[in-house]
Amino acid sequence: MTATPLRKDAERNRERLVRAAQEVFAESGLDVALEAVAKRAGVSIGTLYNRFPSRADLVHAAFADSVETVGRLAEHALGLDDPWDGFVYFVEQVSQLQAGDRGYNDLAGRGVPAATPTEDHLRGYDLMSQIVARARDGGRLRPDFTLEDMAFITWSITKTIEATAATSPTVWRRHLALILDGLQTPAAHPLPEPPLSREQLAAIYRDC
């Protein structure tokens, strides 16, 4: 007779923990002590670990909505008539998400250690592949740009957001505009190194 209330209590605790993690990560980044999340949720640290055995599990749950949002942004980008406009829109909007959430900025810059990609992550990867290919085939994005090169944009904007958040929280837009100008075909020159492979990029994120 007590099983149902216990299940409801467990679900309420999970929801409180996810909301608390979203708030605390946004304020303090992914490296914050998990005790701060438990305190914000009003539960014990033991309850947190009972629901989320690892930090990666909690991060996945806290940013599930953000991953879905990125997917929707990618779909909208692919629906724009001009492929270059779609590419720019996607990069700008994701950068805006990073600028508004310290935790998501951390996540974008380094991924989640020991985390298994979800269906939403894999879907996002496929949509981004289409955005890059479409912009490249359209002639505006330099022809040697690969999906893995998107990481260079993410890493650089991540650091700019981190460094300037307290003094000039929108200056990342200037940095991004400079990057985008340099990615257009008329500005392209032969590159000194080949692109990263998908496997190399995955290894880099694992080691972050």
Query: Strand portion, in percent?
Result: under 5%
Number of helices: 11
Q: Which quaternary structure do these chains form? A: single chain
Low-pLDDT runs: none
Q: What's the number of extended β-strand segments?
A: 0
Average predicted confidence as pLDDT: 91
Distance between the termini: 48 Å
Residue share in helix: over 70%
Q: What composes the largest sheet?
A: none
Morphology call: elongated
- Secondary-structure element string: HHHHHHHHHHH
Radius of gyration: 19 Å
Structural class based on helices, strands and sheet pairing = mainly alpha
Brief overview:
This protein has helices spanning 3-28, 34-41, 45-51, 55-62, 64-79, 83-99, 102-110, 119-137, 150-164, 172-183, 198-207. The chain has 208 residues and is an all-alpha fold.
Overview of the molecule:
The chain is an all-alpha fold. Helices cover 71% and strands 0% of the residues. The protein contains 11 helices and no strands. It has helices at residues 3-28, 34-41, 45-51, 55-62, 64-79, 83-99, 102-110, 119-137, 150-164, 172-183, 198-207. Helix 6 (83-99) crosses helix 8. It is elongated, with a radius of gyration of 19 Å. The termini are far apart.
